[in-house]
Amino acid sequence: MPDVPALSVSSRVDVIANARIGGEGRELLAHPDVEKDGLVDLWISGGRISDIAPAGNLRHRGTVLDAEGAWVVPGLRDHHVHALQAALFQDRASIGHAAGASEAARVAASVPVEQSGRRVLVGMRHAFWPDLPTLDALDEATGEVPTYIVNADLHSIWMNSAAFRREQIAPDPSGFVSEHAAFDVANTLNDVDAADADA
Asked: What is the set of domains in the chain, with CATH numbers?
């Protein structure tokens, strides 16, 4: 077998060999050999898949990356928008510039209280912060005003104890609600008068 050159992240690959295909498009691979063991070879041209065949059916050319049975899936695509949230984000204070949890809590404390009696901030990206957000830290900075800091991806919200009480949710020491619980809270935050939403 010939020596295979070492590949790096910047290497151009001509064939991805011995891969399994998952996700959209798999239904197009109705071939007995693919159905038997699931392995295919993918030919790449100009950064796009130009051909797919059962593994080993066609002679490889150029630089080959052996996937060794790993899954190949379509790239992430965003098939939806959140129009109301995008509009509300324009009107709410952002902490996207905050360098850490302590700075974000201080910023939250300085934000005016909405007519609803809450403070709502957006744009959190806590995965990049050196210090961890906690319930105690947000409580100390924001006191008894229900305070909500919505993650930029909309999948979690950092809340203080007053917000947990308002939402009738048992508080977590992190101060976070995530996924379905966050979606439920976001629905209440986004329940604004239609005229306000339109504006």
From this structure: 15-72 (no CATH), 83-198 (3.10.310.70)
